[in-house]
TrEMBL record:
Residues 211-284 form the Cation efflux protein cytoplasmic domain. Keywords: Membrane, Transmembrane, Transmembrane helix, Transport. Residues 11-202 form the Cation efflux protein transmembrane domain. NCBIfam families: CDF. It is a multi-pass membrane protein. Coiled coil: none annotated. The chain crosses the membrane at residues 7-29, 41-61, 73-93, 113-131, 143-166. SUPFAM superfamilies: Cation efflux protein cytoplasmic domain-like, Cation efflux protein transmembrane domain-like. This is Cation diffusion facilitator family transporter. Belongs to the cation diffusion facilitator (CDF) transporter (TC 2.A.4) family. Gene3D superfamilies: Cation efflux protein transmembrane domain (1.20.1510.10), Cation efflux protein, cytoplasmic domain (3.30.70.1350). It is found in: Membrane.
Length: 295
């Protein structure tokens, strides 16, 4: 079992534990805001299970029907998590409106807040770990799960503050007002996550900084060639696909041209983890005098 899969399984366990804690906090207090917070954790459990399934499927090797592998399935999980974040925000807004119309002071607020704070701390620690490991493993599903948990932490923080202020001041409207503001923040987070995930599904090029590094590697390791042009890049989960045309002198042998390609490929793989490179060799008559001019 690889590390990414173990983390995904851990996310399911943590999500279930946090849900149990938040349901306990709601049971003690009867707070509608804490109930809304628990509802979002139900979404967290569903999202964690979806991410686990996506990561497990994306680890399957390439086959005849999927020659480029299955890593892109992680973007579907990320899109689903973004949608679930939006659903959670709408549910919270609904509960906040109900609480505003029918305000109610919470019972036993201190024990409930302590339990909710423990659940929030657990979520925050796990979100930080997901971000760190997701970026290392280049896993959109893990990074998306981290974003999801951050939204949950923000929600829980707003709920804790709201319930605490209600207990201290007796102003019952504070609780639903803060819950509504937090829900709007979650909507923004979910929309951003869905945009990024759709970008992966639409084969967006790599970010400008990485593209500059790729061009530099080709340029400095292409000695003997004339130029490289028509470079195309895209991400697919943990993989980065790099394609370009390499123009060589017409009299160069196939073996010599292949040696240049091998040198460039080795340098690119050392620079870009998970790089999959395709180089189309062309004679000098095909030069376009633009793109990456090799040295």
């Amino acid at each position: 079992m690889n590390r990414t899969l173990r983390i995904a399984i851990g996310s399911v366990v943590v999500a279930c534990a946090v849900l149990a804690l938040k349901l306990g906090a709601w049971g003690l207090t009867g707070s509608v805001a804490l109930l809304a917070d628990a509802l979002e954790s139900v979404v967290n459990v569903a999202a964690a299970v979806a991410a686990l399934a996506a990561i497990r499927f994306s680890a399957l090797p390439a086959d005849a029907n999927h020659p480029y592998g299955h890593t892109k399935v992680e973007y579907f999980s990320a899109v689903l998590e973004g949608a679930l974040i939006v659903i959670a925000a709408v549910a919270i807004l609904h509960e906040a409106w109900g609480a505003f119309l029918r305000p109610r002071a919470p019972d036993a607020p201190i024990p409930g807040l302590l339990i909710s704070a423990a659940a929030t701390a657990l979520n925050g620690a796990w979100a930080a770990m997901l971000f760190r490991q997701g970026r290392v493993a280049k896993s959109p599903a893990l990074v998306a799960a981290g974003h999801h948990l951050v939204s949950d932490v923000v929600t829980s923080g707003g709920v804790i503050i709201g319930v605490g202020l209600v207990a201290l001041t007796g102003q019952l409207w504070i609780d639903p007002a803060l819950a509504a503001l937090t829900a709007l923040n979650i909507l923004w987070s979910g929309g951003r996550l869905m945009r990024e995930s759709v970008g992966g599904l639409m084969d967006e090029a790599v970010e400008p900084g990485l593209l500059a590094r790729i061009r530099s590697v080709v340029s400095t390791n292409g000695e003997g060639a004339i130029e490289a042009h028509d470079m195309r890049t895209r991400h697919a989960g943990r993989l980065t696909f790099i394609e370009f045309h390499l123009v060589v002198p017409g009299e160069m042998t196939v073996e010599a041209a292949h040696g240049i390609c091998d040198r460039i490929e080795a340098a690119l793989k050392a620079e870009v983890e998970g790089a999959t490179i395709t180089i189309h060799v062309e004679p000098e008559g095909k030069a376009k005098h633009r793109g990456v001019l090799v040295l």
